[in-house]
Amino acid sequence: xLGTKSVEQTERKQQVTRVKWTITNEYxxxxxxxxxxxxxxxxxxxxxxxxxxxGEIRVNGKAQSVRFPLGTGDQLELKLPPETIxxxxxxxxxxxxxxxxxxxxxxxxxxxGIATIPSMNQPSGTIANGVLxxxxxxxxxxxxxxxxxxxxxxxxxxxxxxxxxxxxxxxxLQREGKVKRHYQAxxxxxxxxxxxxxxxxxxxxxxxxIERTVTExxxxxxxxxxVIQETAAHSLVDVNLETGRTHQIRVHxxxxxxxxVGDDLYGGTSNVIDRQALHCYQIEFEHPxxxxxxxxxxxxxxxxxxxxxxxx
Length: 312
Fold this sequence. Notes:
Layout: E1 7-12, E2 17-22, H1 32-39, H2 44-52, E3 56-59, E4 62-63, E5 75-80, E6 98-101, E7 105-110, H3 127-138, E8 145-148, E9 155-161, H4 164-175, E10 179-188, E11 195-199, E12 202-204, E13 212-214, E14 222-230, E15 234-241, H5 248-255, E16 278-286, E17 293-297, H6 302-309
Parallel strand pairs: 9-16
Antiparallel strand pairs: 1-2, 2-5, 3-4, 3-5, 6-7, 7-9, 8-9, 10-15, 10-16, 11-14, 12-13, 14-15, 16-17
C-alpha cells in the first residue's frame, strides 16, 4: 500500500525513468528493500531487474543497496532500466488518439478495425505497434504493457502502463477490482427486462482457438446491464463487467438470445454495421502512484450512433 504521507513523483530524462519518494517518519529505520516491497509494491522481480539490468537505487543522490536503512526526510530514488522489445514487435507510425498520459500510464481511444496487440494473423498495424513508434519519438525506453485489451472490432478506451513497475501495480489493482470499464453495446431485439445480470461461466469453445462459449467447465463471468434506448429492432445497453473474460459481453448476450448487432461470430446480423456494435465508453482506475481515482470518457462512435437512431 502507498504510504498516506509519502510524496511520490516520476521524471523521465533521455531514456531514464526515475521514481522518487520522500521518506516520512513512520518509515524511519526501514530497509530500502522492505520499503520498496511493502510500502510501494515493488516486486522482487522488478528489484532483480533493477539490480542486474542497468537500474539503480539511490538515497539522497548516492547509490545504495537494498539493505540500506532509511531515515526521515531521505530522498529515495529508483531508476528503472530500459526494457527489451519482444521479438516481432516493431514501431509503426500511425495516428493515435491519446486521451491522457503521464509518466506511469497512457490512455488511448482506439477505433474499430485495429487490433490491440500483434498476433499470428495480424503481426503489424496494431495499437501496440503505434505506441512503440510514439515511445520512440519521445525517447521512452520501454515496451508496451497493455492493461485493458479490446478486440479488433471493438472501439473505445484502452489503458496502457508506461513501464513494468506501473504495469505490476495496475495489474494488482485490476485484480482488486479497481480498474473498471463501462461499455455501450447494441444488441438485437428487445430485452425482457430493462436491467439485469448475466452470471454464466465462459470457456473456450471445443474445436476453436478463437470462439468462447457458456460452459459449466468455464470460468465465472458476470455481466451487468441496463437498457438505455430501444428501437423496433435493436436495444442500446450500458454494460458493466464484474469479470473480464475473453469475448464476455459478446458471448453473454448471444447466450440469452440477443447477440450484438454485427457480431457474425456469435450470431449477430452483419448487414447494418461492419463490426460488432461494442464501444468501451468509460474507463476508471486508481492511479498506481498517486492513488487518485482517474475517469475518462469516449463518445459513442458514429456508426453505432447512426444505427441506434435510424429506427427511432
